[in-house]
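Researcher: Go.
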Amino acid sequence: MSARAEPAQPIVDVAWLAPRVCSADLVVLDLRRSARNFAAEHVPCAVHSDYYTGSWRATRDGVENMVPAVGRLETLIGGLGIGNETHVVLVTAALDMFSPAELARVYFIFRALGH
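Model: Structure:
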């Protein structure tokens, strides 16, 4: 019988992240809106993707804020260095009431894609 990896937990803390932070199989995805704030302060080795300008939302049939097509999401996520086997940790500055909702939406996009 082969050993199975422990299932990933949906919420991790600094103690879990610190020894893994710059490993090849982990991407810390920072979803804050401000590239300037990201540049000033972020988790080491993190990549930035603005929720509003990073193609996480789409307009279809005149309805805004829809989930983009799978192909568009695959291009976006792959361009961030995230593959099927990559562990993803989502972070945000959480400076307002919208930041946690944006992070949760990206989390559920990853879940819907089977990640």
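Model: The first helix runs from residue 14 to 17.
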